[in-house]
């Protein structure tokens, strides 16, 4: 995984020192806060490690590395990061504020599922801008998915979602990814629209996942922007994008603990293959570097 966002560089100096002293804890705290864990988690992690250092009576900073990986793994693993896609069709709503990487994520996710042999259709239920539909169509094609487009600009998003699920049922397509609007300036309208999309879908098929896409580079501000989705959209999983361009890997843990919703996918680049499922142990290890 890209070193850019791992804590590795910040911590390397610390792990090769002779002994653990007060500076070690200060440096560790700074590194954790810089990586966007937030002060509360940083403090809790340090307390946990101080306690372990005392219990195991170690003075070797190398032990800290293993302890940190374990502490992170434990915290990550409190959440169930498995995608629930067993229904047929499995309907996934993808929500989030414009610009976070929603369209790209849908293409990458389709490609990811395709590699597991699944068939996918994408529903272009963000019907407001024709250009957005075209961009989604390009990504769907790249990802090896079919697409159901609106028949005209501004068509009722719920009716596009309806037609997409009809298509999946008719053709036996296994997974439906529904794109939704993310224009922030019409928050109330947007949530009403989303509720209607959900209502219409639920008459046809259960919704397997509602994935909220968040941009790691926007950190806590991004979460605040997305609060309306967290409140109203029945989010079941988070997708954290742009982890490649960011030194903010701690955001993944911070956002999971703050929202109480598991991270299920991570985006690490602009290419079609730059997405992966979330595995706590692998992520903790790569984060510490
Ligand atoms: P949308 O408005 O939410 O649909 O966002 P887009 O999918 O159009 O993405 C917005 C920008 O973010 C584009 O330039 C994407 O290439 C870029 N982007 C999306 N995901 C990632 C990622 O994981 N890493 C990087 N570096 N860029 C990304």
From TrEMBL:
<keyword id="KW-0378">Hydrolase</keyword>
<comment type="similarity">
    <text>Belongs to the GTP-binding SRP family. FtsY subfamily.</text>
</comment>
<dbReference type="InterPro" id="IPR036225">
    <property type="entry name" value="SRP/SRP_N"/>
</dbReference>
<feature type="domain" description="SRP54-type proteins GTP-binding">
    <location>
        <begin position="262"/>
        <end position="275"/>
    </location>
</feature>
<dbReference type="GO" id="GO:0005047">
    <property type="term" value="F:signal recognition particle binding"/>
</dbReference>
<keyword id="KW-0675">Receptor</keyword>
<feature type="binding site">
    <location>
        <begin position="241"/>
        <end position="244"/>
    </location>
    <ligand>
        <name>GTP</name>
    </ligand>
</feature>
<feature type="binding site">
    <location>
        <begin position="179"/>
        <end position="183"/>
    </location>
    <ligand>
        <name>GTP</name>
    </ligand>
</feature>
<comment type="function">
    <text>Involved in targeting and insertion of nascent membrane proteins into the cytoplasmic membrane. Acts as a receptor for the complex formed by the signal recognition particle (SRP) and the ribosome-nascent chain (RNC).</text>
</comment>
<keyword id="KW-0342">GTP-binding</keyword>
<dbReference type="InterPro" id="IPR000897">
    <property type="entry name" value="SRP54_GTPase_dom"/>
</dbReference>
<dbReference type="GO" id="GO:0005886">
    <property type="term" value="C:plasma membrane"/>
</dbReference>
<dbReference type="InterPro" id="IPR027417">
    <property type="entry name" value="P-loop_NTPase"/>
</dbReference>
<dbReference type="GO" id="GO:0005525">
    <property type="term" value="F:GTP binding"/>
</dbReference>
<protein>
    <recommendedName>
        <fullName>Signal recognition particle receptor FtsY</fullName>
        <ecNumber>3.6.5.4</ecNumber>
    </recommendedName>
</protein>
<dbReference type="InterPro" id="IPR003593">
    <property type="entry name" value="AAA+_ATPase"/>
</dbReference>
<dbReference type="InterPro" id="IPR004390">
    <property type="entry name" value="SR_rcpt_FtsY"/>
</dbReference>
<dbReference type="InterPro" id="IPR042101">
    <property type="entry name" value="SRP54_N_sf"/>
</dbReference>
<keyword id="KW-0963">Cytoplasm</keyword>
<dbReference type="GO" id="GO:0005737">
    <property type="term" value="C:cytoplasm"/>
</dbReference>
<dbReference type="InterPro" id="IPR013822">
    <property type="entry name" value="Signal_recog_particl_SRP54_hlx"/>
</dbReference>
<dbReference type="GO" id="GO:0006614">
    <property type="term" value="P:SRP-dependent cotranslational protein targeting to membrane"/>
</dbReference>
<dbReference type="Pfam" id="PF02881">
    <property type="entry name" value="SRP54_N"/>
</dbReference>
<dbReference type="Pfam" id="PF00448">
    <property type="entry name" value="SRP54"/>
</dbReference>
<keyword id="KW-0547">Nucleotide-binding</keyword>
<keyword id="KW-1003">Cell membrane</keyword>
<comment type="subunit">
    <text>Part of the signal recognition particle protein translocation system, which is composed of SRP and FtsY.</text>
</comment>
<feature type="binding site">
    <location>
        <begin position="96"/>
        <end position="103"/>
    </location>
    <ligand>
        <name>GTP</name>
    </ligand>
</feature>
<dbReference type="GO" id="GO:0003924">
    <property type="term" value="F:GTPase activity"/>
</dbReference>
<keyword id="KW-0472">Membrane</keyword>
């Amino acid at each position: 995984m890209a070193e850019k966002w791992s804590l590795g560089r910040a911590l390397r100096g610390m792990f090769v020192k002779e002994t653990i002293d007060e500076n070690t804890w200060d440096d560790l705290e700074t590194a954790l806060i810089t990586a966007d864990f937030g002060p509360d988690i940083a403090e809790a992690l340090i307390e946990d490690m101080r306690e372990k250092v005392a219990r195991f009576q170690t003075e070797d900073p190398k032990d800290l590395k293993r302890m940190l990986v374990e502490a992170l793994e434990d915290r990550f693993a409190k959440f169930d990061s498995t995608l629930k896609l067993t229904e047929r069709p499995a309907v996934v709503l993808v929500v989030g504020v414009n610009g976070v990487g929603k369209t790209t994520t849908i293409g990458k996710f389709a490609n990811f599922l395709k590699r597991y042999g699944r068939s996918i259709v994408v529903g272009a239920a963000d019907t407001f801008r024709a250009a957005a539909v075209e961009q989604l169509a390009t990504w769907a094609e790249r990802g090896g998915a079919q697409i159901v487009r609106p028949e005209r600009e501004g068509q009722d998003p719920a009716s596009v979602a309806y037609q997409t699920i009809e298509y999946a049922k008719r053709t036996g397509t296994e997974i439906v990814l529904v794109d939704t609007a993310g224009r922030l300036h019409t928050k109330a309208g947007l949530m009403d629209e989303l509720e209607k999309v959900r209502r219409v879908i639920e008459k046809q098929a259960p919704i397997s996942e509602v994935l909220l896409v968040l941009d790691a580079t926007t950190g806590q501000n991004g979460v605040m922007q997305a609060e309306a989705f967290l409140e109203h959209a029945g989010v079941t999983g988070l997708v954290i994008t742009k982890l490649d361009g960011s030194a903010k890997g701690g955001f993944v843990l911070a956002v999971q603990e703050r929202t109480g919703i598991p991270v299920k996918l991570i985006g690490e680049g602009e290419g079609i293959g730059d997405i992966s499922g979330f595995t706590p142990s692998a992520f903790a290890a790569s984060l510490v570097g």
